[in-house]
Design a protein that fits this description.
alpha+beta; three-stranded antiparallel beta sheet; 17% helix; NETI; NETI motif-containing protein
Length: 63
């Protein structure tokens, strides 16, 4: 089966970072990088931060 050599895994809303890392390991990937970006929403004409989106870059572990 051909799988991507690199893949981004996003920490889902309500999910712990550790759970995302376990999901990556189960899929056969190891952490190679991390990216964070804020998520904003406009409320009554004012832009407010809602939450932080965390993504981990995974590299396929050789078997």
């Amino acid at each position: 089966m051909n799988r991507k050599k690199t893949m981004w895994f996003e920490v889902k809303e309500g999910e712990k970072v550790e759970d995302c890392l376990k999901r990556m390991a189960t899929a056969g990937y190891t952490v190679a990088g991390k990216r964070e970006e804020p998520l904003f929403q406009e409320v009554d004409g004012e832009v407010i931060p809602i939450r932080q989106i965390i993504k981990f870059k995974g590299i396929l572990t050789e078997s």
